[in-house]
Amino acid sequence: MVRNYKRKKEKTYCCETLLEAVRLVKQKQLTSYAAAERFNIPRSTIISHVYATRGQKQANPGKNTVFSRSCEQEISSYLHIMEKNGFPLTSKEVKALVSEYIKRNGIVTPFREDMPFREDMIGFVVFARETVYR
């Protein structure tokens, strides 16, 4: 893609008119053709928004987290305390501690034998770093 890309055609509508057109089409008060003509919005854009093939479909993209935000912060704080006191942990030890936390608190998880997967640990490490350096 060109480094200094400029749109050749600017939008002729604003977000509010698009949302209004989509609302009317969803409520079957207007057809997509009529809404496109009335609001001067391309029909393909209206259809894309009606069937949610464009734009953000959910608040948090990606798979759902196993732990709540507060639970992750609690586990993260435990790990930081151990690190401050001179006990750095390997990923296997962190997995074992998380597994123990799950068992003691009776949390239902999709983990096999309550042991987190490698991908989950990578996500958690990224989260833990963000909480430390904020």
Could you walk me through the main structural features you see in this protein, from its secondary elements to its overall organization?
This protein has 134 residues and is mostly helical. The protein is 55% helix and 0% strand. It contains six helices and no strands. The chain has helices at 15-26, 32-39, 43-50, 69-84, 91-105, 118-132. The protein is elongated, with a radius of gyration of 24 Å. One of its GO terms (cellular component) is nucleus. It is found in: Nucleus. This is HTH psq-type domain-containing protein.
Give a quick rundown of the structure.
One of its GO terms (cellular component) is nucleus. 55% of the residues lie in helices and 0% in strands. The protein has 134 residues and is mostly helical.
Map the helices and strands.
Layout: H1 15-26, H2 32-39, H3 43-50, H4 69-84, H5 91-105, H6 118-132
Shape: elongated
Please give the largest β-sheet. Answer: none
Q: What is the chain-wise order of helices and strands?
A: HHHHHH
Residues in β-strands, percent? under 5%
Oligomer: single chain
The number of helical elements comes to: 6
End-to-end Cα distance, whole Å, is: 34 Å
Structural class: mainly alpha
> How many beta-strand elements?
0
Share of helix among residues?
55-70%
Q: What value does the average pLDDT take?
A: 80
* Radius of gyration from CA coordinates: 24 Å
Uncertain stretches of 5 or more adjacent residues? none
